[in-house]
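Please produce the structure of this protein holding coenzyme A.
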Amino acid sequence: MAISQDIYGGNDYLPHRYHSWMTEPGRVVIIARRGRKLVALESGLVVDGGETVIVEGLRACPKERGCCLAGVIQRFVDGYIKKVYPNVKTKRLTRGDDPGPEKLHKFTLLAVLSLRGDSEGFNSFVSGLKEKLVVSDESNSSRPLVPVKDLDALKAFLFDSDLSSRLQLPGGSNLDILARRNLTWFVDGSGGKPLFMSFHTPPYPIPYNGGSLRFNIDLYGTETSLAKKALSTHLNSVKSEIQGLVLVYIYMHQTLSKDLKRFCEGHDTVKQFQNFWEQLFLEKEP
Ligand SMILES: CC(C)(COP(=O)(O)OP(=O)(O)OC[C@H]1O[C@@H](n2cnc3c(N)ncnc32)[C@H](O)[C@@H]1OP(=O)(O)O)[C@@H](O)C(=O)NCCC(=O)NCCS
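Below is the modeled complex.
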């Protein structure tokens, strides 16, 4: 667990996820040791019916950084995955830094907004956001957001390849993997072709400030009014489950970032945590 100290300012998901990673089907976790000490880690999850690996959790312990350990463990994981899962053709990962002139199939820019507040603060924050939606007349538009009730309903959305490619959603073949995550989904319920889908993760503990909670919201779609509504809907539905200090990370299409940042400003109780930053969502050969 100590490898996560000093990483992401104490908001690393790894200590919480590590144990469930050990039993997750299709998951590989590789650790590197120097002598008896664990010095690096990386994990991969095989998705898309065995054709794609999602790489996550790359860590080098602070004393070993700058010695190319990250390159060594990544090459080892790539080779191991190829051997154990020979059908894997694509590797997906996110990076906060510029990967340089690597050969990529494609990449997408994701904007990340983070918020920090205590659980009581979130109540008034959510009320404030709802008021802003009413004032700007964005709350009762003809596009209500409705919860996705069960797995069958989620399946119907994710197996609609038109919707899934339009909103850049994970494909239907990953339904079992998504189902394991206990996510809460909302969808643009205006009928016809939904323009927006989103989910939040359950809150989970992180080391930040001696012990806090974190949850993540993923927004799929580019319509600003639906994004604002989705954000306040998710925060509203999670607020009864949180206590103490809470960090929220909101991942979205880059075109939404300025409007959502402004939407969240002007509240004393919940504030932007880290500067807005961008992550590159990359696809390349393993
Ligand atoms: C990012 C981190 C793993 C880099 O480890 P490092 O061993 O110090 O990295 P180095 O700069 O010495 O190694 C360079 C190699 O790692 C790769 N690398 C560095 N940062 C990377 C990143 N964020 N993602 C993928 N690869 C990375 C470089 O491309 C290079 O590869 P090459 O040898 O094939 O050319 C380390 O600083 C760390 O643990 N940081 C905190 C956690 C974190 O930010 N993880 C990012 C992924 S979620």
